Backbone:
């Protein structure tokens, strides 16, 4: 996933732009075939989501499929007031708080690990592959292991304790991989320049590395927040008695067969889109502020 | 002068910076895995209590069960189908973005359009297929209206087809991103040279683009295979309970407090996953691929 960032940075350039297309400007038939495929892919990607957003605005007669039956906010009100749909408000609240905690920890820890992995050190491979293991391990299995571990140690599982740790085992590998992509475009010469000018190690990090890497750190934060906010498998056995939002959605998919479910989908997606918008906006803003100043030279 | 001391200092600095990462991964990845491993050798009283003995009975039970084989066959089937479709779509989409979209800004914009859903809820994206695939869903309605079919298709939702659709919908992005990245690094001079040397479009694809996208494909494959094999949610919801999966059975076992058999099954699955991932890693240095 790391490369979403390189393009956001506007640093990586797809290299062979138009190389296969004849230089005269005429498009080969493959262009039209692939463009059609791409359009269909995007349609399949967004189409279903848009359907449930539309269906969530039905009135009280609404069902799970088209056609639309009236227009109202009934199911949104239903979602937050009805007891039968579960504790949506509380789980929403917990999920946001948890996601903020996870985001802060993910940014700090991934940034430090990114600094650490820049140079080889003894045992770096072990740490790296343990991290990859944490990424590919089945979430439910890890969740169960964490749950049993806490049980054996006599610590109660909770969303702010065991679930926080379980989610970090998922967000950190992503965060560090994004940091790798970001760091690979950081020119060590700047750091050396700062040292030569008498900056302490701490000043170098605070005044040079962090400002230069700021867009990448925002991207790490985006990963941290959204992955935590949507995390399900690892939280299932570790969240304790109080549900997070994805767990609430999971129990709704099994019990609730009204457009409430779609209303919840609309609400969580709005939150996701706000987070994505704010993150991408911040990155663009940082890039703009830098304006004409030299961009990091591309290295490959 | 300092070279003699540098290794030690570099090691200390390195470990200092990764220490917070280690502090999280040890209790929340290494220890849980070891707990599951240990539990797979324990016996149970049937009420969730574990007796710390050493028994291979749990492994014997799952290995002798015909159910296990069926579960793995089902899971492998979904994994292979999902892998084929995500790879085909991911490769072609990445190829289109890198080689056919001429405007840099447009390519980045379209790439972002592909990645945005990754940052939204997977569960919601999965259930969003219900209004389309259902018996009274849009696809059936459209097919009925055009007269292609006269009875609504029931295989669309709550079937293996729906499971594969949901997986492909969620996971194609994991192919697009690494393949896009590999392709973007192909030097365009190489392709121009091939064109000048009268290589056909097919030859360019076969001899240049495909081999040079190999690392991206490997990375994407690791993501897709490990996610599908470790998933139970999509299978459970989208098959309507009709299909089982390895992790689904694990979840059922946990539900009835059969921790040791669940643990043994988890260990078996993890071993198979490790084998697949290490096989892929033999063909690609993932760390170099990522840091390049």
Residues:
């Amino acid at each position: 996933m790391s490369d979403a960032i390189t393009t956001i940075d506007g640093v990586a350039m797809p290299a062979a732009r138009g190389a296969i297309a004849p230089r005269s400007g005429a498009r080969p038939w493959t262009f039209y075939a692939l463009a059609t495929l791409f359009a269909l892919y995007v349609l399949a990607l967004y189409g279903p989501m848009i359907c449930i957003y539309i269906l969530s605005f039905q009135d009280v007669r609404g069902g799970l499929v088209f056609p639309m039956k009236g227009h109202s906010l009934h199911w949104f009100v239903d979602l937050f007031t009805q007891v039968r749909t579960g504790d949506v408000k509380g789980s929403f609240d917990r999920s946001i708080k948890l996601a903020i905690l996870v985001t802060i920890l993910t940014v700090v820890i991934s940034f430090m690990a990114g600094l650490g992995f820049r140079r080889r050190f003894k045992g770096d491979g072990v740490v790296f592959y343990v991290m990859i293991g944490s990424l590919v391990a089945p979430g439910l299995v890890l969740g169960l292991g964490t749950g049993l571990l806490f049980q054996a140690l006599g610590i109660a599982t909770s969303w702010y304790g065991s679930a926080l740790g379980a989610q970090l085992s998922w967000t950190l590998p992503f965060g560090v991989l994004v940091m790798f992509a970001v760091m690979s475009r950081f020119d060590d010469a700047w750091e050396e320049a700062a040292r030569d000018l008498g900056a302490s190690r701490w000043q170098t990090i605070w005044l040079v590395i962090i400002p230069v890497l700021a867009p990448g750190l925002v991207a790490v934060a985006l990963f941290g927040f959204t992955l935590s906010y949507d995390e399900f498998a690892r939280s299932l056995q570790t969240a304790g008695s109080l549900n997070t939002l994805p767990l609430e959605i999971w129990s709704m998919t099994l019990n609730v067969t009204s457009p409430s479910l779609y209303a919840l989908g609309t609400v969580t997606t709005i939150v996701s889109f706000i987070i994505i918008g704010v993150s991408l906006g911040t990155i663009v803003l940082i890039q703009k502020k830098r304006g004409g100043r030299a961009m990091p030279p591309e290295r490959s | 002068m300092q070279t003699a001391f540098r290794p030690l200092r570099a090691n200390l600095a390195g470990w200092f910076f990764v220490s917070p990462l280690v502090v999280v991964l040890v209790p929340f990845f290494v220890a849980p895995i070891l707990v599951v491993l240990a539990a797979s050798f324990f016996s149970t009283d049937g009420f969730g209590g574990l007796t710390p003995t050493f028994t291979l009975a749990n492994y014997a039970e799952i290995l002798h069960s015909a159910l296990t084989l069926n579960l793995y066959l089902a899971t492998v089937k979904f994994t292979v189908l999902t892998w084929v479709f995500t790879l085909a779509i991911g490769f072609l989409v990445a190829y289109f973005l890198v080689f056919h979209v001429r405007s840099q800004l447009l390519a980045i914009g379209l790439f972002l359009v592909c990645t945005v859903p990754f940052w939204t809820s997977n569960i919601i994206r999965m259930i969003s297929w219900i209004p389309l695939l259902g018996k009274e869903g849009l696809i059936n309605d459209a097919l009925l209206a055009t007269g292609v079919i006269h009875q609504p298709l029931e295989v669309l939702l709550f079937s293996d087809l729906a499971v594969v659709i949901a997986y492909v919908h969620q996971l194609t992005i994991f192919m697009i991103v690494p393949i896009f990245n590999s392709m973007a690094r192909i030097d365009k001079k190489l392709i121009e040279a091939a064109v000048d040397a009268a290589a056909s479009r097919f030859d360019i694809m076969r001899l240049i683009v495909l081999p040079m996208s190999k690392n991206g494909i490997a990375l994407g494959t690791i993501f897709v295979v490990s996610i599908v094999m470790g998933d139970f949610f999509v299978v459970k919801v989208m098959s309507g309970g009709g299909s089982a999966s390895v992790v689904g059975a694990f979840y059922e076992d946990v539900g009835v407090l059969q921790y040791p058999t669940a643990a043994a099954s988890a260990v078996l699955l993890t071993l198979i996953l490790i084998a697949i991932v290490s096989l892929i890693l033999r063909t690609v240095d993932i760390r170099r691929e990522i840091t390049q």
Summary: The first strand of chain B starts at residue 43 and ends at 44. Residues 66-100 of chain B form the longest helix (35 residues). Chain B has a mean pLDDT of 86.
